[in-house]
Design brief:
The complex is a heterodimer of chains A (207) and B (233).
Chain A lengths: L18 H8 L4 H23 L2 H18 L10 H20 L19 H20 L2 H11 L5 H8 L3 H19 L17
Helix pairs in contact in A: 1-2, 2-3, 2-4, 3-4, 6-8, 7-8
Chain B lengths: L1 H6 L2 H5 L5 H11 L3 H16 L11 H16 L12 H16 L5 H23 L4 E5 L2 E5 L5 E8 L6 E8 L5 E6 L2 E7 L9 E8 L12 E4 L5
Antiparallel strand pairs in B: 1-2, 2-3, 3-6, 4-5, 4-7, 7-8
Classes of the chains: A mainly alpha (207), B alpha+beta (233).
Chain lengths: 207, 233
């Protein structure tokens, strides 16, 4: 078994499995699969929840509820319908948005205090999260301002489309179309292959 | 008209930007609308990518153990909620029901897919194991890659293989200084991972043909994949 640089609480015997395969094990109430899923996505989930809630305790609650929802509903996940990471982060996002609405802590301003990302247990995780962050931030910057604003206020701010329409003084239809166009454009921008994916493409003309 | 109005809500739903009542109506529509299901899958992927743009400080280590402990408790107990969740219990339960409803659509036509999914995941796991073996080799060819572990265990990874005809199947073969031997049946798909039932010695050839459902004892068709387990220069 490959040894990580630092020991984890659980051996990484799942290291070779796809996220989707881990969720399939979760559906069989395999607790170590939940641990694995947390090790893969706990940090991204917490970062997201913290960005929305701006409160560490509430962010922890959102992450906890999101992962437990995954635990309870893993049998409903179908790989053909989307990635496991999307499924899980959607669960956490819903919890966070629900909490932020209930607590009335929505804020429109971007986070000023930049968290100095604490080094995690694995340098690979750090590097990967940094690459992903830079990639998505790059794509967000490429969006027209109004689209980016609509996406950020909705996704990080927890504002509904009606609230956004009121806040920005635009018809709801305009907000809808900014959200749609923004997400579709984001998809295109993010559609470029990631470094790891190249390895899976066959190189032609050898037999 | 009503349906059109619902189609328009897909992006907002993907961003969790609908009022609760709007979200309920949209979910009811979603259950019947394949177009929205497909679009939602795509837009949700973009939306969840936004999660990664946030700075990600490490969560406190206790969070992990707390989640695992509660999950363990839920498996053992019928009523799992901790006291501190007791107050918003109704809201949480209602939300959970909404989420379950929405996400249930990820799982439409659940039951008959489950077995196939399990089998497919087992295959993927097996192929991933072979790939992860130290010293495994990958031989690329026009339609995919042949992977052979050091032990001789082999797997084919094929790209975009249309499903076989009705009452037909794909069959893999391994030929090593003799007639090709059956090495497993499989279906098509966007990416097909096929662990081979038979070891692939150095110099052996792996082939794929389309055969009658149930497979054949020796190939009856011209192979459309022929790849040799030889060192690539």
């Amino acid at each position: 078994m490959p040894m990580g640089k630092t020991p984890r609480l659980m051996p990484r015997s799942f290291g070779h499995l796809s996220d989707e395969a881990v969720v399939a094990m979760l559906a069989r109430s395999d607790e170590s699969a939940l641990a694995e899923l947390y090790d893969r996505f706990g940090r991204a989930a917490y970062g997201l929840a913290l960005r929305i809630l701006r409160d560490e305790k509430l962010a922890e609650d959102a992450v906890q509820e999101g992962f437990l929802a995954a635990w309870r509903n893993a049998d409903r996940f179908i790989p053909e319908r989307g990635r496991a990471s999307t499924w899980l982060l959607t669960l956490v996002h819903r919890r966070a948005v629900d909490l932020v609405r209930r607590e009335g802590r929505r804020r429109a301003e971007p986070l000023r205090e930049s968290f100095e990302p604490a080094p995690s247990e694995s340098a690979e995780d750090d590097a990967w999260l940094r690459i992903e962050r830079e990639r998505v931030q790059w794509a967000l910057k490429k969006l027209p301002d109004q689209q980016r604003e609509a996406l950020e206020l909705a996704y990080y701010g927890g504002f509904t489309q009606s609230e956004l329409a009121e806040r920005l003084g635009e018809p709801v239809g305009t907000i809808k179309s900014r959200m749609f166009t923004g997400l579709a454009r984001l998809r295109e921008l993010l559609g470029e292959p990631r470094p790891g994916e190249a390895a899976w493409k066959p190189t032609p003309n050898t037999t | 008209m009503e349906a059109d109005a619902q189609h328009d809500l897909t992006a907002a739903y993907a961003l969790d930007a609908l009022e609760p009542e709007e979200a309920r109506r949209y979910e009811a529509h979603l259950a019947r609308c394949e177009r929205c299901q497909g679009e939602l899958a795509e837009l949700s992927e973009s939306a969840s990518a936004l999660a990664y743009a946030a700075d990600a400080p490490a969560p406190p280590p206790e969070l992990r153990s707390r989640i695992l402990a509660q999950a363990r408790g839920e498996r053992a107990n019928v009523v799992p909620l901790r006291p501190r969740w007791a107050k918003p219990l109704v809201a949480v339960a209602a939300l959970a029901a909404c989420v379950a409803l929405g996400l249930g659509l990820w799982a439409s036509s659940l039951s008959n897919k489950l077995d196939r999914r399990e089998a497919e995941i087992k295959r993927q796991q097996r192929v991933a194991q072979i790939l992860a073996e130290p010293g495994s080799r990958k031989i690329s060819f026009s339609r995919g890659t042949l992977v052979v572990g050091r032990s001789g265990d082999g797997a084919l990874v094929l790209n975009k293989l249309a499903p076989p005809g009705a009452d037909r199947t794909y069959e893999a073969w391994v030929a090593d200084q003799g007639a090709p031997q059956p090495a497993g049946l499989f279906e098509g798909g966007k990416a097909v991972a096929v662990p081979l039932d038979r070891p692939v010695p150095q110099g052996a050839t792996v082939m794929v043909t389309e055969e009658k459902a149930g497979g054949a004892a020796s190939p009856t068709q011209t192979p459309f994949v022929i790849v040799r387990n030889a060192s690539q220069s």
